[in-house]
Amino acid sequence: MGQKVHPHGLRLGIIYNWSSRWFFSNKKTYRESVYEDAKIRKQLMDKYSYAGVTDIMIERAIKKITVIIYSVKPGMIIGRGGKGLEDVKKIIVSHIKNLKDEKQKQSRIELKIEPVKKPYTHPYYVAQSIAEKLARNFPHRAVVHSTMSRVMEAGARGVRIQLGGRISGAEISRREKYFKGTIPNSTIRERVEFAKYPALTKSGYVGVKVWICQA
């Protein structure tokens, strides 16, 4: 059987940087920080999915934690007068253990919201948009082909989309693969990004996987 590897993990440390950037020599602190970052990232991605969050970077220093959120619609996170930023900080604070009190935690958190200029070059946003349309019973082939055209128009070299499950309410689950352009799986110097997202349809979950080769 062919052995599969995550495209981002294959290139990590070569052309991609880590999503969490910090270092601890203490094993317990290291373990807790990894777990905290995972919880923060998952909750923010789930809560602000409507804002098109594509990635979250977390940097830790001795007395400071910097969280960078990349969003297609940053205004929906920031809110009127920046009120939304306080909600984001509360979520982050709720997962951090190594600071003494809430005021101290909030003062040590630096929050940055970065806009995403070309959303259709980010596989997570593409997979999420496909999943949302499938959940609303849009024809899957029309959705996939129109999405691939938008990805190529945004400047990508290639795109691959895979659907798996009871597609369009079929009795038997199946997988369908769609390609456009070039997707080199093993060439490390190529910027290939990958993401997956579940689509909850009336017939059950349909998995959406997206690979995009950046220009």
From TrEMBL:
Family: Belongs to the universal ribosomal protein uS3 family.
UniProt xrefs under PROSITE patterns: KH_TYPE_2, RIBOSOMAL_S3
GO molecular function terms attached to this record: mRNA binding; rRNA binding; structural constituent of ribosome
Chain's role: Binds the lower part of the 30S subunit head. Binds mRNA in the 70S ribosome, positioning it for translation.
Name the UniProt record assigns to this protein: Small ribosomal subunit protein uS3
GO annotations of cellular component type: cytosolic small ribosomal subunit
Keywords: Ribonucleoprotein, Ribosomal protein, RNA-binding, rRNA-binding
Source species: Candidatus Roizmanbacteria bacterium RIFCSPLOWO2_01_FULL_38_12
InterPro entries named among the record's database cross-references: KH_dom-like_a/b, KH_dom_type_2, KH_sf_prok-type, Ribosomal_S3_C_sf, Ribosomal_uS3, Ribosomal_uS3_bac-typ, Ribosomal_uS3_C, Ribosomal_uS3_CS
